[in-house]
Amino acid sequence: MSDIISRRNLLGRALVAAAAVAAVPGVEAAEPAGYTHLAPTDPSAAALGYVSDATKVDTAKYKTYKAGQQCANCLQLQGTAGDPWRPCILYPKKLVNVNGWCSGYVKKA
Ligand code: SF4
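^ thats the input. predicted complex w/ iron/sulfur cluster below
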């Protein structure tokens, strides 16, 4: 019997601890399973000039880029508002930085 109570207490404490960690500012939420951050060196990213910081866009090469454009205000961005890394329709199983940009940018209405 005391074993059961101990396990219940342990489980309860683990749940409280997990909730506390999730509520701490600066601790990022878990990313979707099977997703990784998109690297600018990834061939599909490089093909569209993806950068994780839109201020680093090669403006000589990507003349369509306009200041202020970034993943956060792109129609292709998916996921949950407020997350720093989110899925993008153009890059399956990858997360893009909300401050990033690529030439697939479409202004969100
Ligand atoms: S398509 Fe839009 S959301 Fe996706 S990487 Fe390019 S700019 Fe960012």
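The CA atoms of residues 82 and 98 lie 9 Å apart.
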